Amino acid sequence: MNECVPLDPHLRTRPMMGGHAQISRGLLAVRLSMLLAALVATVPARADSTSAPTTRLLFIVDERVAGCPTEETMRALVATHLGYDPFRRDALWLVRARIEPSGVEIVGRIELEDDRGAPAGGRKLHAPKGACQDLVDSMALATSLALDPVTAPRRPSPVPVSPPSSNSPPPDPVAVAPSVPEPATPIAPPPPRPSSPFTTYAVTATQVSLGGTPGTALGFTLGGGVERRWLAIGLEARIDLPSEADSQNGGVEATQLDIAAVACAQTGSRVAVAGCLVAGGGPMWSHGVGVTEEGSALTAHAGVGARVRLALRLTDVLAIGLRAELLAALVHSELSVAVAGANQGVWGSSPVVTTLGPDLSVHFR
Known about the structure:
14% helix; mainly beta
């Protein structure tokens, strides 16, 4: 029986007696088994997305945020991080990714729901205004990290195999087989605090109106309300400064207060156009001017009509606009003076009241 000489890592042969190169067949079989086990251990298993839960992707970008990538870009970025596409349209799990403005920055929210619709985690990211591409990159990375414990198949950890020393017996190939770690239990972060879908706003305006009071009246408006996407509902208070009308029998001067409800449908982000329905009314105070017997009167007015507003957003918070309004008078008012014991008409309200002026609005989230 020939003496076996241990092999080095390169499997070189050592000459034996008689000048022939020989290798022990048993030792060679052990070495080949060890090499095969090392190769299997160092090559990761191919991901099979069908063996793990898949998710649906709902990607929403607020219309006021410009320069954002599409949903396809978001899917591709997540797939790049994971090494496979975890999204399927009929899956029960859901990833909701939403981007919206918040003051001088933009916010990305990621919400994960399980197959029962229960929150399974979430993340909130911030980015400067105009950096939507960078925000989507961060959201894709955060989404892949959130989905990895849920959707990624478990891969065996490679076990390095050290070459045996010449003084130690050959290792058992079974002992160096790779072991599959137990799946880690994902720790879901607390669900994000739900944000209100409504935005509040305050508005102030200066306007010139004709037909509601004697002469042309200068007025001021202060109001506020709530808005959501394209719909806004508010309440406004307007006061017209005293205006005067004269006749050959004398003059009258009047001022009025108006409380109006406003409902607007608006479109556009940076430059917005709104169409509104307006309805309101209030008291009007009047008195005679340049007459022998001065007196005062209190009457009421009411009107309903439409408003068109063109607005320019200076920031996500501040906007300036120009409004034009046309109201049909529901109450006809007449002002008169007493001349020689008889009332002489001086002014009567117009069937249509027109208003035009600029405004300034502030929006709060």
